[in-house]
Amino acid sequence: MLGWLKEAGMATTTLKIQGMTCNHCVMRVAKALKALPGVQDAKVDLAKAEAVMTYDEAKATKETMAAAVVDAGYKVV
Predict the structure, then answer these.
(1) For the chain, percent helix, then strand, then coil, each to nearest 5?
(2) Predicted structure pTM score
(3) CA-to-CA distance for 50 and 52, rounded, in angstroms?
(4) Could you give the 3-state DSSP secondary structure of residue 37?
(5) Rounded Cα distance, 59 and 20, in Å
(6) Contacts of 68 (CB under 8 A, 6+ apart)
(7) Domain spans, the chain
């Protein structure tokens, strides 16, 4: 997919996350997000304390992604 070409129904959002201290935390958050229906990709950055997700707007919401992060043991800010 070209960077300037957005797939129909696909969106990108960023969540700021507190509580990640190591790469294991990063992997745990990424796994929780990627397991959600509609989430195509999740890139988690420890240094920036954030996760950037590409997802299908018809299947996932920012709220469901935030809930998955909380369920994994971290705080969304």
Answers:
(1) 30, 30, 40
(2) 0.88
(3) 7
(4) coil
(5) 26
(6) 32, 33, 35, 36
(7) 10-76
DSSP string, 6-19: PPTTEEEEEEEEE-
Residues 24, 19: Cα–Cα separation, whole Å = 12
Distance of CA 51 to the CA centre of its chain: 5
> 62 and 39 in contact (C-beta within 8 Å)?
no
Q: Which residue has the higher pLDDT, 6 or 50?
A: 50
d(CA 32, CA 13): 16
Q: Please name the fold of domain 10-76.
A: Alpha-Beta Plaits (3.30.70)
Task: Write the pLDDT tens digit of every residue in 24-41.
Answer: 999 999 999 999 999 999
